[in-house]
Write a structure and sequence with these properties.
- Keywords: ATP-binding, Disulfide bond, EGF-like domain, Glycoprotein, Kinase, Membrane, Nucleotide-binding, Receptor, Serine/threonine-protein kinase, Signal, Transferase, Transmembrane, Transmembrane helix.
- By secondary structure, the protein is an alpha+beta fold.
- It has six domains: 132 residues, Bulb-type lectin domain (Agglutinin, subunit A, Orthogonal Prism); 137 residues, Bulb-type lectin domain (Agglutinin, subunit A, Orthogonal Prism), CATH 2.90.10; 122 residues, Hepatocyte Growth Factor; 52 residues, no CATH class; 89 residues, Phosphorylase Kinase, domain 1, CATH 3.30.200.20; 188 residues, Transferase(Phosphotransferase), domain 1 (Orthogonal Bundle).
- It has 13 helices and 43 strands.
- Strands 36-40-41-39-38-37 form a six-stranded mixed beta sheet, sandwiched between helices. Strands 29-35-32-33-31 form a five-stranded antiparallel beta sheet, covered by helices on one side. A four-stranded antiparallel beta sheet has the order 1-10-11-12, with no helix packed on it.
- α9 runs antiparallel to α12.
- The longest helix has 28 residues.
- It is globular and about 100 Å long.
């Protein structure tokens, strides 16, 4: 009997255990080399239903995309994101209980619980099918007994190409509709006539060429994505006709994919397979290349083509982001590609009432709607350009370029973009009384004029007061000039913003001289106010205790970033005061105050309301991290900064303020942002501060919402219960989760959900930031789209 050395085997076993322990969110599942005829998968909530490749790097099966909507897909299976690379039914998700089957006669069928066929693999010529297999290349195949592929997903791509996957003449990939919707979008890439072409489509039968790759690739034969990580077009002789992504990053160390994203760009992504192979790259998907380099700068006349819809404009920072100009808002905030709608009554074309005094402009530097021109002038001033639009009821905006060139724009505004390469400034026409910026209106002018006439008549009745008249006129003209100059300065300081600019005296009137305090904290004090000019609308005015003395430019930058946010789970900023040492922010009023009073006070909210608030807070935080044109790290997520409106909708407040405060303005250590108990450990260890500090704070907040108690309770009966995070992990490992919610009947009846949320919270509060999920991961786990793996001890790293 041959002797087998035991030490190599022990070392190999130890290596496997160690490796698996360092892979967060990896769901252990049975792997398959071959799938036999007659096998099937069932779509089930929160239950893995897939066939994995031999290495388990890829999986084929059901992913839950919506509450009761499943996608038959292939995904990267060893990373937290479970990134999808192929799907069968993106246009038609299936419900719980749907079945995918490899039939006895070798057919691949997807059916609903009622037996309705949703999808079938086009394998009519695939006779002699013996089995199916999920391969380590990411290719799912039907094969015969000779291991010849009779049908494969590599030849039926959706939006992604993987290394070694062929892409030849006639092949096409479609973009997704948006980040969360897997139906076919409006962009496609196809190999046609030897060219690789990016098309945009307006309907199933109406497509236009949008971008053609390097003309040197004419008569190309194939798009090559090799195992070295290079992507190029091959000529007929096999040589490189055009290099798309020259990066030589081995597939041995990195997961890789090339995707036509929903904004139309073709991007090459990589993801380190382990922290030791990251070559300085962060864990997570990073972009190696993108073609076109700036999708916002492409477009076509009269088509509204591009990442963003009519009346909106596009900015680019790795990806395209859509915005609405001042006076406009998104038609559908959940589908920004539909464009923006006008929030005010258009200018009248009645010649007897031109309404020129009822409109002003919202300013956008380095902007343009390139295909909305209908008239232009040369050698004119900006004032002339604007006045020409103001007197023309058709004109909705003008672009003025240095050198005196003026372009008038007609509706709808098409192919908008803002980019430093654009030489020009856009002035968008906005009605004053409908705008959130409210310069002095015509009624005020009439009142001032009437007063002036009355005073003038009295003074003119006596020549003794002629000099008084001259002094009064000088005073009024000077005051009007100063106010107009201030308005112009504010517009230039905050270009494109739709915020009300207040003087300090205005704020004192709004708050009745700061008479009603409704909240205070380390940052400042909040007062209740009333906008008499807006039908008595209630507002909350935040007055800062102190700010960095030289922060004038920073204040303007941060307020501009806050203004560009637009999400139902963020408190809306309405206006500001930036006058000498006075800097205040005016927010929408939240009638139910902060979460703190309902979570820790006498009138405690119920279990299901707490779950809803946790979900809404996660969505708001995800938007700050990934949905804004400028990423915002909140730095102080806690119950006091989660506010509730009259319908108890949770909204995050005080976002974007961290950079405005003095470095020592904190409740903890100098230089640290945040509040004791919610502060991530990297603040104390000189590590880089990233969005993961917010994830940590959210984890603590989630535990407080689950348990209905503060994160630190010094008077707890048992010393083990003083620190909530430690106690929650102890209860989880000892399977005593009922102790966390023992006084909550609803939660006690929902312990399965309690366990899931506790596991999510434990992942969020890991000491090692790289082990914490992103807020996108958190949202997916909370919604049941991805399974929550077993978390490690938060302090074990």
């Amino acid at each position: 009997m041959a002797f087998v050395p035991i030490y190599p085997l022990l070392f190999f076993f130890f290596f496997l255990v160690l490796t698996s322990s360092q892979m967060p969110f990896y769901a252990n599942a049975q792997t398959y080399k071959n799938v036999s005829l007659g096998s099937s998968l069932i779509a089930q909530n929160n239950i893995n239903s897939f066939w994995a490749s031999p290495s388990a790097e890829f999986a084929f099966g059901f992913q839950q995309i919506q509450k009761d909507g499943f996608l038959l897909a292939i995904w990267f299976n060893k990373i937290p994101e479970k990134t999808i690379v192929w799907s069968a039914n993106g246009n038609d998700l299936v419900p719980t209980g749907s079945k995918f089957e490899l039939t006895i006669d070798g057919q691949l069928l997807l059916k609903t619980p009622t037996g309705q066929q949703i999808w079938k693999a086009d394998s009519s010529n695939a006779t002699g099918v013996a089995y199916a297999a999920m391969l380590d290349t990411g290719n799912f195949v039907l094969a015969n007994n000779g291991s010849i592929n009779l049908w494969e997903t590599f030849k039926q791509p959706t939006d992604t190409i993987l290394p070694t996957q062929p892409f030849v003449e006639g092949d096409t990939i479609f973009s997704r509709y948006n980040e969360t919707k897997y139906s076919e979008g409006k962009f496609l890439i196809s190999f046609r006539g030897g060219d690789l072409v990016l098309f945009t489509r307006h309907s199933a039968s109406d497509v236009d060429k949008f971008y053609v790759w390097d003309t040197a690739a004419a008569n190309g034969t194939e798009l090559i994505f090799n195992i070295s990580g290079s992507i190029y077009l091959a000529a007929k002789d096999g040589s490189i006709a055009s290099m798309l992504s020259p990066n030589n990053i081995s597939t041995k160390d990195f997961y890789q994919r090339a995707v036509i994203d929903y904004d139309g760009a073709f991007r090459h992504y990589v993801y380190p397979k382990s922290s030791t192979s990251s070559e300085g790259r962060p864990l997570g998907w990073s972009i190696l290349s993108a073609v076109p380099s700036n999708i916002c700068l492409l477009g076509r006349e009269d088509r509204g083509v591009g990442p963003c819809g009519f009346n909106s404009y596009c900015t680019y920072d790795q990806r395209a982001t859509c915005h609405c100009p001042g006076g406009y808002s998104f038609i559908d905030p959940d589908d920004v590609a539909k464009g923006c709608k006008q929030d005010f009554v258009s200018q009248s074309c009645n010649k007897e009432s031109p309404e020129t005094d009822l409109f002003h402009y919202s300013k956008m530097p380095n902007g343009d709607w390139g295909y909305s021109d209908y008239e232009h002038f040369e050698n004119v001033t900006e004032d002339y350009c604007w006045q020409s639009c103001l007197e023309d009821c058709i004109c909705v905006a003008v672009m003025f370029r240095q050198g005196g060139v003026c372009f008038k724009k007609k509706p709808p505004l098409s192919n908008g973009r803002m980019d430093p390469s654009i030489d020009g400034t856009i002035l968008v026409k906005v009605r004053k009384d409908n705008s959130t910026i409210s310069p002095r209106n015509s009624v005020s002018k009439k009142n001032n004029s009437s007063t002036l006439i009355l005073v003038g008549s009295i003074l003119l009745s006596s020549s003794v007061f002629v000099n008084c008249l001259l002094l009064l006129v000088t005073f009024l003209v000077g005051r009007s000039y100063n106010k107009i100059r201030k308005e112009i300065q504010e517009q230039s300081i905050f270009p494109g913003m739709g915020l009300q600019s207040y003087t300090y005296e205005d704020i004192k009137k709004v708050t009745n001289d700061f008479s009603e305090e409704i909240g205070s904290g380390a940052f400042g004090t909040v007062f209740k106010g009333v906008l008499t000019s807006d039908h008595g609308k209630l507002v909350a005015v935040k007055r800062f205790n102190s700010m960095v003395a030289e922060s004038d430019v920073e204040f303007k930058t941060e307020v501009s970033a806050i203004d560009r946010t637009n999400h139902r789970n963020l408190v809306k900023l309405l206006g500001f005061c930036n006058e000498e040492q006075h800097r205040l922010l005016v927010y929408e009023f939240m009638s139910n105050g902060s979460l703190e009073s309902f979570l820790f006070g006498v009138s405690r909210i119920n279990w299901y309301s707490r779950i809803q608030i946790a979900s809404e807070a996660a969505k708001g935080l995800l938007y700050l991290h990934d949905g804004c044109s400028t990423q915002i790290i909140h730095c102080d997520i806690k119950p006091q900064n989660i506010l509730l409106d009259d319908k108890f909708t949770a909204k995050i407040s005080d976002f974007g303020l961290a950079k405005l405060l003095k470095t020592d303005q904190t409740r903890t250590t100098t230089g640290i942002r945040g509040t004791k108990g919610y502060v991530a450990p990297e603040w104390f260890s000189n590590q880089p501060i990233t969005v993961k500090v917010d994830v940590y704070s959210f984890g603590i907040l989630l535990l407080e919402l689950i348990c209905g108690r503060r994160n630190v309770e010094a008077e707890a009966g048992d010393e083990n219960e003083i620190i909530l995070a430690d106690w929650a992990y102890e209860c989880y490992t000892e399977r005593k989760l009922e102790l966390l919610v023992k006084d909550d009947k609803e939660a006690m009846e929902d312990l399965k959900r309690v366990e899931k949320l506790v596991k999510i919270a434990i992942w969020c509060i890991q000491d090692d930031p790289s082990l914490r999920p992103t807020m996108k991961n958190v949202k997916q786990m909370m919604e049941g789209i991805v399974e929550v793996p077993i978390p490690p001890d938060p302090s074990s790293a």
